[in-house]
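Regression test case RT-17, inverse folding.

Input:
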């Protein structure tokens, strides 16, 4: 199939819609079209003129589609022409393929941005063809995001510390994370470099007079370090970086096989209040086949240990649609977690990451006889509602399995402010560690980003340069 663009250059938007229905699209900017495998004889024109936006089929083997066309005035319904181009293409492809997707023509990674503009679920449905339940969820989440973000002043600084190492590589992962079974030797040196950067940034922040409102250690798996190295890093952070009075401090422990009582106690001593322990599924066979080195009992033991050590807020992540299990496993996993009452539960939808070992078909096929992921996700949301959890942040990824989304749920008052601040693009984030990207938000929502060297060895060799680069960025 080929979509020819006339009078506009919305290659990304057109590509995003094509990707929903068919395979990975290819752009040809010189000749002005996007094409993909599938429906080979189908040709569509997407045209933006002075007054109208129009999309029509020019050629098709199938007579039913030959004269298909949609046309609207520019800014009709208050929809900017870039979004109208996507809406029209979605409408045409939906008619041609008989398929529809939960988020309709919204393909952006933050549906709550559009939800916030509209303020009503019915508008999201009528203007962007978003399914009613998703539209309501987006509106509710957008309101909660605003409430959580209001806890932070306009000058707040959020700090991220990245540890791109994991004890093994999950099958669905494409992150640059290094599998420590192959890079054990690097881990200690990385902790030393990280501390050097933390100290440098701490000094710089003091000069700038900026206090830190939230801290998030993520990865990879930040708890992957040996006990002593881990303790040194968190102690170094506590001593070097001045935190605001009620600073929120989260460490993503992630893999239960990297957590022990010593590390948890060191976290508490450094002021960490929140820990993430991520099962992804409570099915042992799936965990084994995904190459995660823990089982479901390890997750539960870890939750109990964290409580014993004094953590009041625990987040757990689950992934819907994992290969090797029925879609209904999501709700079985959720029921097990409910008994342990984590304050936050995040439901992710599997998506096809570029470099993952899992294929696109593994992630996106709906004809796998494993049941409807979409239905199971909706059921999971209902169960979370019934247990007093509310959605407080939401994002989507390209090629999300089954066109779904990721949603963080929390019991009231336990929401993770860092997650909302980082996702919102409305707050500054200073990011420490290899591959971490800092972000500044200026007046008028202008955003600038400052990347750190991606690979761990490059980072370790250039850590002083990274400190200077970031401090200049935040001047
Ligand atoms: S824990 Fe996360 S970052 Fe690490 S290998 Fe698994 S998916 Fe990748």
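Golden output:
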């Amino acid at each position: 199939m080929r979509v020819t663009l006339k009078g506009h250059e919305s290659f990304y938007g057109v590509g995003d819609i094509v990707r929903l229905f068919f395979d990975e699209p290819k752009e040809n900017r010189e000749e002005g079209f996007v094409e993909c495998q599938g429906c080979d004889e189908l040709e569509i024109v997407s045209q933006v003129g002075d007054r109208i936006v129009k999309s029509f089929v020019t050629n098709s083997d199938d007579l039913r589609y030959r004269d298909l066309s949609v046309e609207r005035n520019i800014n009709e319904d208050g929809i900017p022409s870039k979004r109208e181009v996507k809406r029209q293409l979605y409408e045409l492809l939906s008619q041609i393929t008989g398929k529809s997707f939960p988020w309709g023509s919204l393909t952006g990674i933050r549906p709550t941005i559009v939800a916030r503009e509209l303020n009503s679920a019915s508008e999201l449905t009528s203007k962007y063809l978003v399914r009613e339940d998703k539209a309501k969820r987006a509106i509710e989440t957008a309101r909660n995001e605003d409430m959580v973000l209001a806890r932070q002043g306009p000058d707040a600084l959020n700090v991220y510390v990245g540890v791109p190492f994991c004890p093994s590589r999950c099958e669905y992962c494409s992150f640059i994370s290094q599998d420590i079974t192959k890079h054990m030797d690097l881990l200690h040196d990385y902790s030393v470099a990280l501390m050097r950067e933390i100290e440098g940034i701490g000094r710089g922040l003091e000069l700038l007079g900026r206090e830190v409102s939230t801290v998030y250690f993520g990865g990879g798996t930040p708890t992957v370090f040996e006990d002593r190295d881990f303790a040194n890093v968190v102690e170094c952070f506590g001593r070097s970086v001045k935190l605001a009075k009620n600073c929120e401090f989260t460490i993503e422990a992630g893999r239960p096989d990297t957590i022990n009582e010593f590390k948890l106690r060191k976290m508490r001593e450094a002021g960490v209040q929140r820990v993430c322990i991520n099962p992804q599924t409570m099915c042992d066979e799936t965990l084994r086949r995904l190459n995660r080195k823990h089982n479901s009992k390890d997750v539960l033991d870890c939750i109990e240990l964290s409580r014993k050590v004094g953590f009041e807020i625990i987040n757990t992540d689950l992934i819907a649609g994992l290969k090797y299990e029925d879609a209904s496993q999501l709700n079985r996993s959720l029921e097990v977690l409910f008994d342990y009452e984590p304050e936050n539960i995040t439901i992710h939808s599997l998506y096809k990451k570029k470099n993952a070992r899992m294929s696109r078909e593994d992630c996106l096929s709906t004809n796998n006889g494993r049941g409807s992921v979409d239905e199971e996700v909706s059921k999971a949301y209902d169960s979370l509602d019934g247990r007093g959890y509310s959605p407080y942040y939401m994002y989507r990824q390209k090629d999300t399995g089954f066109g779904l989304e990721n949603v963080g749920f929390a019991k009231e008052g336990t929401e993770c402010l860092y997650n909302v601040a980082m996702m919102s693009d409305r707050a500054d984030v200073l990011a420490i560690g290899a591959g971490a990207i800092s972000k500044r938000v200026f007046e008028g929502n202008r955003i600038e980003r400052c990347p750190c060297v991606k690979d761990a060895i490059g980072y370790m060799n250039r850590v002083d340069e990274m400190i200077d680069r970031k401090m200049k960025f935040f001047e």
